[in-house]
Design goal:
With 223 residues, this protein is α/β, with parallel strands linked by helices. It has one domain (7-222): Uracil-DNA glycosylase-like domain (Uracil-DNA Glycosylase, subunit E). It has helices at 7-16, 21-33, 70-73, 81-92, 130-146, 158-167, 198-203, 208-222; strands at 51-52, 58-62, 113-117, 152-156, 181-183, 189-193.
Length: 223
């Protein structure tokens, strides 16, 4: 690394990382075989860096890139229905300039927010192994150091919440649940939300008003 780190440098390192053989093999297999609906597209097929406003006060933390979403488009929560649900909510509270996120060059910009994932490569079955999470930890650690205005972390799902609690030394860790709020020892506010996966949104486990309430609270706490 250079003596001075930066978000662009971090993004390049994430994209070039080949540390985890299982994840590298899977992301590249998906990019080669493709989904029929995207057969004419060039898949990203690499590690996916975070995205947003470098001055962000709110971090949105997810699990990992989706195989045919961010692993295809190269931008986190972009090109799948989870991203559609997420960015609509962010748009409603003024964190995103538009409610859609379909490609890396679609004009989406974020204001006061940064979106990233604990694990930077798409995992088989959307389930990274413990050792893969450990291997990726350095990227998240660098990201948090570079985003030095953060006041709130919105944890999308239990996996992200557990990672955030470990990162910010929250002990004991309160039980995960939608709307749960935790104050970390360093003063950061952790806000929990069910993940905007199709499994949760299609069944009504997570509704738009539920996610809106979390983001409205995030805006309140970040002010």
């Amino acid at each position: 690394m250079d003596s001075v780190d930066s978000l662009p440098h971090l993004a390049a390192d994430v994209g070039e990382c080949r540390h985890c053989p299982r994840l590298v093999a899977w992301r590249e297999q998906v990019a080669d075989e493709k989904r029929a609906a995207f057969r004419d597209q060039q898949y990203w097929g690499r590690g996916v860096p975070g995205f947003g406003d470098p001055r962000a006060t709110v971090l949105i933390l997810g699990l990992a890139p989706a195989a045919h979403g961010a692993n295809r488009t190269g931008r986190v929560f972009t090109g799948d229905r989870s991203g559609d649900f997420l960015y609509r909510a962010m748009n409603r509270v003024g964190m995103a300039n538009q409610p859609t996120s379909v490609s890396i060059d679609d004009g989406l910009t974020l204001d006061g927010a940064w979106v990233t994932a604990v694990v930077k490569c798409a995992p088989p079955g959307n389930k990274p192994l413990p050792e893969e999470r450990v291997a990726c930890h350095g990227f998240l650690e660098r990201e948090l150091q570079l985003l030095d205005n953060l006041r709130v972390v919105v944890c999308l799902g239990a996996f992200a919440y557990e990672a955030a609690c470990a990162e910010f030394d929250v002990r004991p860790r309160p039980k995960f649940g939608h709307g749960v709020e935790v104050r970390a020892p360093n003063g950061l506010h952790l806000l929990c939300s069910f993940h905007p996966s199709q499994q949760n949104t299609f069944t009504g486990k997570l509704t738009e008003p539920m996610l809106d309430a979390v983001f409205e609270r995030a805006v309140e706490l970040s002010g």
